[in-house]
């Protein structure tokens, strides 16, 4: 479902009916960024710069060729992470800022690897994206503003979007310098969004009388597919390694269900008509566009009918989401036994192209303690979205056969971002994401 073309005009619509309906189709940030979560105990501390290292079970995800360098069986027992994100759209609703928050405690990664001579086998489970929103906000509008006829506006959002991947891996040591690897993931995505809007609008004719406009928007997405990952590792010198991997998710089955239920107001419908008429009178739209917008609202905007409760039948779609081809290129340098530095460049092609980069390192303070850190990006795949810069840090404690690490990832971005789908209009936006993680691994 698209936003009316009127939003591309230089004048912003001010009717509450449009305000409510367009907020229901706000795009979620996870759609426009591919590096929302860094996976695995060691990569999370190194900002994801892991393609040319990949010698722990986390390498099954980043570059499966790297697990041949794990000379003993290794189990990544658990990596648990708590993630908190916040995005503030300035003056999004009249003079009011709109803040969206997401928080989730999730099992980030689990993996196991087993060397068998020149061959290594592995199995892993990963959660590369997870969003959980559950919030309620209320807004009032100042006298004299475009929305002064609104007593209050309340929006409640319950939104979740989780991607899970699970599957086996195999890697082969071709010689002392070269290895190749392959992971085959089953891809599963489950997304659900429930949004409720309550608007108290002053009656256009009766003073001290208000009408209530209600909107409920339900949407559910389920998709299944697969993601092959092909990796290669080359170590021309003992102190230098290069790695690369390529992957693409293919959706083989997808089902989307959406239903709208709402009760409009006479003022809400009349505001839309009056606003469109004003655009027509000022030659901002043509008569044909005017008729198209009225037809669009009659068909899709159930609050356009104000005589009682309105609803649409659940609409199903089997349109399959397209994922980009992702290519990771990495290099690592091991100057001595205590220090390791690495860098990654990640390219996303074919669908909504963009790129990301990461630089990370690991330093052993002693045989029992090490620190990891790094810098990374989470760039948008749309010109109307903001880019993020992030930092990573973790402290690691080693025993003879195990390790425990704790750390954080923090990303921040600000600039102009698109608030409504289908609109070129942008608003000043500030966003941050904080992830606190605890991971353990065991060699047996």
UniProtKB/TrEMBL annotation:
InterPro entries in the cross-refs: OMPP1/FadL/TodX (IPR005017)
Cellular location(s): Cell outer membrane
DNA repair keyword on record: no
Gene3D superfamilies: Outer membrane protein transport protein (OMPP1/FadL/TodX)
Record's bilayer topology term: Multi-pass membrane protein
Keyword annotations from UniProtKB, A to Z: Cell outer membrane, Membrane, Signal, Transmembrane, Transmembrane beta strand
A GO cellular-component term linked to this record: cell outer membrane
Gene Ontology terms for molecular function: long-chain fatty acid transporting porin activity
Primary location: membrane
Domain of life per record: Bacteria
Pfam families for this protein: Toluene_X
Family to which the UniProt record says this protein belongs: Belongs to the OmpP1/FadL family.
PANTHER family associated with the record: OUTER MEMBRANE PROTEIN NMB0088-RELATED (PTHR35093)
Name under which the protein is recorded: Long-chain fatty acid transport protein
Species per Swiss-Prot/TrEMBL record: Desulfurispira natronophila
């Amino acid at each position: 479902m698209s936003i009316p073309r009127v939003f591309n005009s230089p004048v912003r619509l001010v009717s509450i009916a449009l305000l409510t309906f367009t907020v229901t189709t706000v795009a979620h940030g996870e759609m426009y960024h591919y590096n929302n979560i860094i996976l695995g105990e060691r990569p999370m501390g190194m900002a994801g710069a892991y393609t040319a290292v990949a010698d722990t079970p986390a390498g099954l995800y980043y570059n499966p060729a790297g697990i041949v360098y794990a000379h003993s069986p290794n189990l990544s027992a658990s990596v648990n992470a708590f993630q908190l994100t916040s995005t503030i759209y300035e003056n999004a609703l009249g003079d009011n800022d709109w803040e969206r928050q997401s928080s989730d405690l999730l099992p980030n990664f689990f993996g196991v690897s087993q060397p068998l001579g020149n061959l290594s086998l592995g199995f892993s489970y990963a959660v590369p994206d997870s969003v959980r929103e559950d919030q309620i906000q209320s807004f009032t509008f100042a006298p004299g503003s475009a929305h002064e006829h609104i007593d209050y506006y309340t929006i409640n959002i319950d939104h979740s979007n989780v991607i899970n991947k699970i599957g086996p891996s195999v890697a082969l040591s071709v010689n002392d310098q070269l290895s190749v690897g392959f992971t085959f993931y089953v891809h599963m995505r489950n997304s659900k969004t429930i949004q409720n809007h309550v608007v108290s609008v002053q009656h256009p004719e009766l003073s001290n009388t208000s009408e209530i406009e209600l909107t409920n928007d339900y949407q559910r997405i389920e998709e299944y597919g697969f993601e092959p990952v092909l990796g290669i590792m080359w170590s021309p010198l003992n102190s230098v390694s290069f790695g690369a991997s390529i992957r693409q998710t293919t959706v083989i089955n997808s089902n989307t269900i959406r239903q709208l239920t709402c009760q409009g107001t006479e003022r809400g419908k009349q505001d839309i008509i009056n606003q469109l008429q004003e655009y027509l009178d000022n030659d901002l739209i043509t008569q044909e566009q005017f008729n198209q917008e009225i037809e669009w609202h009659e068909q899709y905007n159930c609050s356009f009918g104000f005589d009682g409760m309105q609803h649409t039948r659940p609409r199903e779609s089997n349109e399959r989401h397209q994922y980009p081809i992702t290519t990771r290129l990495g290099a690592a340098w091991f100057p001595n036994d205590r220090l390791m530095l690495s860098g990654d460049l990640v390219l996303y092609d074919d669908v909504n192209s963009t790129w990301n980069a990461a630089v990370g390192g690991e330093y052993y303070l002693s045989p029992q303690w090490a620190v990891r850190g790094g810098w990374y990006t989470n760039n948008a795949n749309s010109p109307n979205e903001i880019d993020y810069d992030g930092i990573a840090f973790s402290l690691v404690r080693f025993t003879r056969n195990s390790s425990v690490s704790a750390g954080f990832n923090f990303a921040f971005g600000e600039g102009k971002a698109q608030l409504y789908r289908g609109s070129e209009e942008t608003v000043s936006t500030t966003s941050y994401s904080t992830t606190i993680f605890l991971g353990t691994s065991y060699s047996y």
